[in-house]
């Protein structure tokens, strides 16, 4: 009996030692089931060094960040769980990144050192003006920071965030997820979506008329300048705060709420079929007109929603 215990103890110690050795040599890895077989989740990082980056076309489900920096680089971090390795094509400064949506998988293992989040980070040299940046319907989340782009078109399905971005042409956006613009400058904004939430702050669209259309997505705009704009929504709430409108801002919201904070010298024309109107200190229904000869005009219309206007 004592001999059996000793043998068991020795085997236990040996097993522990072998386990430690295996873990130290990456023997403990994430295992997943895909395409009718077990696979080990391998993580890879590859960095490309293009001579220059002139334009970008993004069509990958990986999250992409494009930012300014010292040198042109494209860093791709992937693992077998999240996606297949994207294909990066670079030709005379034209960069195209593509990858397919990953197959369905089932996790069956674990890892003491979790895999890094799959992503692509593209660095554009400072003072570089991109001729074009386009995201396709295959593209996931996108973040753009500190960039100047001649033509910018956003069609991706993932969340989209722009900060300190300037484009000389109209900014065209058709997001299916959240859109956030902070300190963005364009000749105008052309936004179309079904239910994506839109937040715009400290931005400038002063050369042409802008248009924002959504079915049910909420729109929040603050401290932003428009030459002229039209905003249309079916049921999403629209919130406007401390914006500058050079000519006229037209807002039509069939069933959602319109809430605006404006300077007292702004002209207001509010119309509601069956909703309520609250314009500064006036409350009522159907129609109200305030300062019709003012340079900056807000024309607000709703069927059943509520319109509320207060002073900044």
TrEMBL record:
<dbReference type="Pfam" id="PF13349">
    <property type="entry name" value="DUF4097"/>
</dbReference>
<feature type="domain" description="DUF4097">
    <location>
        <begin position="54"/>
        <end position="309"/>
    </location>
</feature>
<protein>
    <recommendedName>
        <fullName>DUF4097 domain-containing protein</fullName>
    </recommendedName>
</protein>
<dbReference type="InterPro" id="IPR025164">
    <property type="entry name" value="Toastrack_DUF4097"/>
</dbReference>
């Amino acid at each position: 009996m004592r001999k059996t215990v000793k043998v068991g103890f020795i085997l236990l110690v040996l097993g522990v030692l072998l386990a430690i050795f295996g873990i130290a040599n990456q023997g403990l890895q994430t295992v997943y089931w895909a395409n009718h077989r077990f696979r080990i989740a391998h993580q890879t990082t590859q960095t490309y060094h293009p001579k220059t980056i002139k334009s970008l076309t993004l069509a990958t489900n990986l999250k992409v960040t494009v930012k300014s920096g010292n040198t042109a680089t494209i860093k791709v971090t992937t693992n077998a769980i999240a996606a297949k390795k994207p294909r990066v094509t670079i030709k005379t400064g034209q960069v195209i990144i593509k990858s397919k949506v990953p197959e369905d998988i089932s996790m069956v293992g674990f890892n003491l050192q979790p895999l890094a989040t799959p992503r692509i980070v593209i660095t554009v040299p400072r003072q570089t003006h991109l001729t074009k940046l386009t995201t396709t319907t295959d593209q996931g989340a996108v973040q753009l920071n500190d960039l100047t782009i001649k033509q910018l078109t956003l069609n991706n399905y993932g969340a989209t965030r722009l900060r300190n971005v300037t484009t000389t042409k109209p900014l065209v956006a058709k997001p299916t997820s959240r859109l956030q613009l902070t300190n963005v400058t364009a000749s105008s904004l052309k936004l179309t979506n079904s239910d994506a939430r839109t937040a715009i702050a400290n931005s400038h669209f002063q050369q042409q008329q802008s248009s924002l259309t959504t079915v049910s997505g909420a729109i929040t705009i603050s401290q932003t300048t428009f030459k002229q704009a039209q905003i249309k929504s079916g049921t999403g709430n629209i919130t406007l705060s401390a914006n500058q409108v050079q000519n006229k801002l037209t807002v039509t919201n069939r069933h959602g709420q319109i809430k605006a904070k404006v300077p007292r010298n702004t002209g207001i024309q509010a119309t509601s079929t069956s909703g309520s109107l609250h314009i500064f200190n006036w409350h009522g229904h159907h129609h109200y007109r305030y300062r019709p000869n003012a340079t900056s005009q807000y024309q607000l219309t709703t069927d059943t929603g509520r319109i509320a206007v207060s002073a900044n």
